[in-house]
Amino acid sequence: MKPITDIQGRWKLNNGVDMPYLGLGVYQADDGQEVVDAIQYALDAGYRNIDTASIYKNEEGVGQGFRESGYAREDVFITSKVWNTDQGYNNTLDAFEASLERLQLDYLDLYLIHWPVSGKYKDTWRALEHLYKEEKVRAIGVSNFMQDHLEDLLSTATIIPMVNQLEFHPFLVQQSLIDYCHAHKIQYQAWSPLMQGKAFHQDAFDAIAKQYDTSVAQLILRWSLQKGVMSIPKSTNKKHIESNADLFDFEISEADMQRLDAMDRGERTGPDPHNFDF
Ligand code: NAD
């Protein structure tokens, strides 16, 4: 098991960069005060990792929230992503600069290809390799890449992605993809770890959470970390932001890890990377 210490704990990516394994996701957080406040709550609670994307239309608020918080740039790990319509070599370089401009930052910690747009993602990846070599971003990666996408990308890539961010929760484990990523030293990261809120309506999770005297969110996020999967739960609610990260004082037993793994039913809350049309 990878070491799990506290909210600021980090795991090393394949290029040696230390990345906090727990972060705040801000999908569907309004640009402006909502996201500004969420960033402040998260950083004050100890989070050191923020996940945004150009398509979330809140990079300006994320940048503002970070600046107003007063935390040092090198202490906070900030991720953004290139959107599908911006893919291709030159478009990606432009999209990256536009994200930096909105965030008012001079570098990103991690830049991801948001979705594997067919016929484009290899050129997009070359642009990310260029940005990485120019030291405009400390790590580069992909999102929603299944094994066939990764095999295709790796056939021409000169840099192996450091991260693959995918939908992941007990109803969608995709263990063989996790194993493939770990074998290639690509860090697996979970999106929609709480199934966009659906996790809170499952008796099976309630029963296990009760055993550990934790919330369902704490249980599922802890399960993710114990599986070596980073996670970026989203909330803009101060109490939820704080409690979601309060998961470092208990450990899920091997038997209960297996019980949660066994709930896998291949159920998605978001789009299928093999079948999306945006
Ligand atoms: P999530 O699984 O994190 O769930 C978020 C929902 O759960 C929100 O409605 C929130 O209000 C609620 N919630 C959170 N904590 C709670 C608590 N303790 N009690 C009750 N309700 C709670 O969903 P998500 O936002 O889809 O995913 C997390 C992050 O992953 C996103 O914000 C985004 O940064 C990233 N993401 C990436 C992709 C991608 O394609 N790469 C896709 C979706 C999301």
SSE blueprint and pairings:
Blueprint: E1 10-12, E2 18-20, E3 24-25, H1 33-45, E4 49-51, H2 59-69, E5 77-82, H3 89-103, E6 108-113, H4 121-133, E7 137-143, H5 147-154, E8 163-167, H6 175-183, E9 187-191, H7 203-212, H8 216-226, E10 230-231, H9 238-244, H10 254-261
Helix pairs in contact: 1-2, 2-3, 3-4, 7-8
Nicotinamide-adenine-dinucleotide binds next to helix 9.
Question: Can you describe this structure in just a few lines?
Answer:
This protein is α/β, with parallel strands linked by helices. It is built from ten helices and ten strands. The protein has helices at residues 33-45, 59-69, 89-103, 121-133, 147-154, 175-183, 203-212, 216-226, 238-244, 254-261; strands at 10-12, 18-20, 24-25, 49-51, 77-82, 108-113, 137-143, 163-167, 187-191, 230-231.
Count of DSSP-assigned helices = 10
Please report the distance between the alpha carbons of the first and last residues: 37 Å
Query: Would you report the number of β strands?
Result: 10
Bound small-molecule species: nicotinamide-adenine-dinucleotide
The profile of the biggest β sheet is: 8 strands, parallel
Radius of gyration: 18 Å
What is the strand content? 15-25%
The sequence of SSEs as H and E is EEEHEHEHEHEHEHEHHEHH
Percent helix range: 25-40%
Q: What is the structural class?
A: alpha/beta
